[in-house]
Each structure stands twice: as C-alpha cells, then as structure tokens.
Amino acid sequence: MDKKFNWSLLLGAAFLMATSAIGPGFLTQTSVFTSQFAANFGFVILASIILDIGAQMNIWRIIAVSEKRAQDIANMVFPGLGYFLALLTVIGGLAFNIGNIAGAGLGFNVLFGMDVKTGAIVSALIAIGIFLSKEAGKAMDRFTQILGFLMIGLTLYVAIKSAPPVGEVVIRTFAPVVEEKDRAAFFMAIVTLVGGTVGGYITFAGGHRLLDAGIKGPDALPQVTRSSVSGILITAIMRTVLFLAAFGVVAAGLALDPKNPPASVFKLAAGDIGFKLFGVVMWAAAITSVVGSAYTSVSFIRTFSEKLEKNHKWIIIGFILMSTVVFVLIGRPVKTLILVGALNGLILPIALGIMLIAAYKSNIVGNYKHPLWLTIFGTLVVGVMSYLGGVTLFKEIPKLFM
C-alpha cells in the first residue's frame, strides 16, 4: 500500500470518527454548557480530551491487533457480551441519528427556507447516495474530510467575530471555579462531552473503518495510533472554536435562545451572515454524522451472519431511512440531544472495560503485549467515567425531565 493512499485512509478514519462526533448534539451541548459554565467550560473540554485519547488509543489498537470488530471481540471475552454491546450501540446510534437527520433538515431550513422535514428527507437521500456509489468507502472518507474542514473554517470565522476574552479562558481551563451546588452538573458536562465524542458507536467508527480498509495487525499500530489521536484532535479543535464563539457572546452579556442555542451563537456573533453560516455548519455536522452513525452502527451487526455481511450496504440505507421516518413522524427536542450524549457516556466504560480485558487474552490478540501505561490510562478512564456517569445518572439526568 503506497504512503499517499495509506495517509488518505488514516485521515479518512480520523475524520469519520471526528465528524461522527460533531453533530447537532455536539453543537447544542457545547453552546448550552458554555452559557451555563462560561470560561470554566474550558476545563470540561480539556478533561474530555484527555479521557477521549485514553479511550480511543486503547480501543483502536485492540481492534487493529485482533483484526476483529468490537462485537466479535466482546463475544470472545464472554459469550453473548458482543450481542449486548451491539444492542446498546445500535440503539444509541439510532437515537443519535434521528437527531442528526433533524439537524440536517434544520440546516436546509436556515439556508433555503425549506420545511425542516422536507430538508431532512433531501439530506437523507444525499447520505444514501454515498452508500450507493461503487467506491462507498472512498466517497465517505472524502465527503467527511471536505465538510469537516468547512465546519472548522466557518466556525473559526464566527469565533473571531465574537471576540471572546481568551485570557480568562486560558486561566479557567486550568483553574476552574465551580460552586458546590453546580458540581454535579459540571460532572455531567464532562460525561456528556466524552459520551458525545467517544461514547456509543462513535469510538468504534474509525477503528472499524481502518479494519475495513485493511489497516490492521501489529505492524499497523503506529498508523492506527496516529489516526486515533488525529480524530480526537480534530474534534477538540472544532469544540474549542465553537466554545470560543459561544463564550464571546455570553461574555458580552447576551442570552442564547434556549430553543436553538447554537443558532443564536452564530447570529449574535456575526449577524444575518452568521445565521446563514450556522445553516451550513449545522447541515455539514448533521449529514456527516448521519453517514458515520449509519456506517458504524451497522458494522456492529454485520458479522453476526453471512446474510447481514452480504447485504450490509442495504442495511445501512435502511438505517438512514428508519431514522428519517421516525424524525418526520415524531420530531426531536433539544433536551434529548443532551440526554443521548450523557447515556452514550455511560456505554463507554462498559465498551472500554471489555477491550482492556481482551487485550490480555491470547486467543484474541495473539502474542501482542499491550503497553502497561495504556492499560493504566484506560483503567483510569473506565473508573472516572463510571463514577461521573453514576453521579449523572442519579442526580442530573432526572432534572432533564422535571
């Protein structure tokens, strides 16, 4: 495999993971939490990046070395565990995808005045077109890369226009000031960000993509590590830029619209042009997440039978159609986007815990020796996310429904 093609695949996997994470929920969560915690949200982003890297490096390496998808690894750790993991992941992926479809419809509504549901249907057809192409993998890689760069560039423009007090952000990123009564909510923000970045299906998106592209085995580990960290850094750049844009608005004393927090960030920072840019960013974020969610969720069930493997492309298309039908019939509120991110954060310690056990089973990884520091790093992530997830589950999630 030549180096140019190899690098293209690695970047494609990184962007698939990153753009899967950067969806409507990502935009909503970042805006809502910035208005809630102001400059202190910088610490939440920093903590989530560290936890994200710990999760990604472990999971992608173990998938590459075992040359198996996550559900098959889980079934080898304990019979039936892979089916349970697949069920959790597919349900989470479907829930996220309904929000992604809604976001794509909203993007078209802002850009062209098109009815949101009509925009959602048109967007779904575009996503389906990618999977109908002969080179679906390459088309998906290129699509996510182009729109990923576009999102970051446009949001950076809005961040510059909003002129946030960067000095305060730097200080609070390393020394946050959070009152006792707000700490549980602060923990929930970390869980939600980690869940929205590497929770549920997202953490496996790039790893499964590299496997499909033939980048696997111990010799591929340096490339796999580079790709996994690149995916997190791309997501972190977008999160930071959006946070700065939102904080500039909040620091100026302006209030975000609770019905559509990210749209108000763009409009308050850059006027009507900003609002149109929001339409582009929302559509790009949503449509790339539709593609990533459908591809990865189906990758969790396709190995369970030859029929599923043979027809996986059509199952992906069915997954997109199902998400669209549910949105058109039911809709999707802002609170649910935050809830799904938090719940996906609860799936992460289960999935990562399974992978860490698998790393020490020779029938799964052969003669591979998993680095001790990665095991410690991964175990810390499992512990921290289990604790924060418990606090979120019992203290904060119920508040969303009060």
Automatic annotation (TrEMBL):
Organism: Marinithermofilum abyssi
Ranges that cross the membrane: 37-55, 76-98, 110-132, 144-164, 184-211, 232-255, 275-301, 313-331, 337-360, 372-394
Primary localisation category: membrane
Gene Ontology biological-process annotations: iron ion transmembrane transport
Membrane topology value: Multi-pass membrane protein
Protein name: Putative membrane protein YcsG
Keywords of the record: Membrane, Transmembrane, Transmembrane helix
CC terms in the record's Gene Ontology section: plasma membrane
Matches recorded under InterPro entries: NRAMP_fam (IPR001046)
Subcellular location: Membrane
Gene that produces this protein: ycsG
GO MF assignments: cadmium ion transmembrane transporter activity; manganese ion transmembrane transporter activity
